[in-house]
Amino acid sequence: MSTLKKLGYPENTKLLIIHADDAGLSHAENQATIQALQEGSVNSTSIMVPCPWFGEMADFAAKHEQYDYGIHLTLTCEWKHYKWGPILSKTEVPGLLDENGYLHNNRENFKNNTSSEEIKKELQAQIERALQSGLKPTHLDSHMYTLGLKPEFIKIYKELGAAYKLPILLSKQLIEFLGLDPNLYISNDDFCVDNVFLGNYADFEKGQLEAYYERVLDNLPTGLNIVLIHTAFDVPEMQGIAIDHPNFGAEWRQIDYDFFTSQKCQSKIENNGIKLITWREIRDILYPEG
């Protein structure tokens, strides 16, 4: 059964989630994401529980339940100087740690050093911490899509979604990008996003990131689509975090914020017959019993 049929929409429907990753990363990230939810076309975000600014975003979410909040399951820490560790004690999940006691800074080190048991324990702790904060999550997704790196990681991802009755961001495109054959790990019964759109560094380098987003909206296919963005203000705090990391860095995140809070973006959504849908709506369809 197609994704649209599962959601009860006609086959010619263009559904779109405009999703801002990495809430909780920093104050600049939180403030831009909040404003993008309140004033822009962004209609979904997800929060990184282990990050230093989780509390600020969780507090906002608890007081503004009308917005769409996922848990951005976090098992890596990619920045040069800005670091965090796991929720659990370091003796409980030693394989998740680098030589300095922080989460690994790239997918390969994470993939080669951790165990499924540690991953599941840590992710359950992150979800429970989010629930204890008052967050009412709409879905689960994966930071840097680390849960798509191995079949056993995908299994954990699915198990967590089923256990907490939350849809997960499952995507054949993202699994394929990480080197696995998605057809071996995704069945017809799994709920999948049909198309994932993510800005690329070549367009950013040429100053054409906004033009890329315009093309996506002008040519959006039918089915369930998601545009993954990262909204933050290009201020000293975010510049310091993203030093030596222009890919999804401070300037990039400001561009994402500027475009997806613009009238141009809103007009393109309307003129192209796009229907915005949230993970909250999807959750309530897939898990009507709550």
From TrEMBL:
<protein>
    <submittedName>
        <fullName>Polysaccharide deacetylase family protein</fullName>
    </submittedName>
</protein>
<dbReference type="InterPro" id="IPR011330">
    <property type="entry name" value="Glyco_hydro/deAcase_b/a-brl"/>
</dbReference>
<keyword id="KW-0378">Hydrolase</keyword>
<keyword id="KW-0460">Magnesium</keyword>
<keyword id="KW-0119">Carbohydrate metabolism</keyword>
<keyword id="KW-0479">Metal-binding</keyword>
<dbReference type="Pfam" id="PF04794">
    <property type="entry name" value="YdjC"/>
</dbReference>
<dbReference type="InterPro" id="IPR006879">
    <property type="entry name" value="YdjC-like"/>
</dbReference>
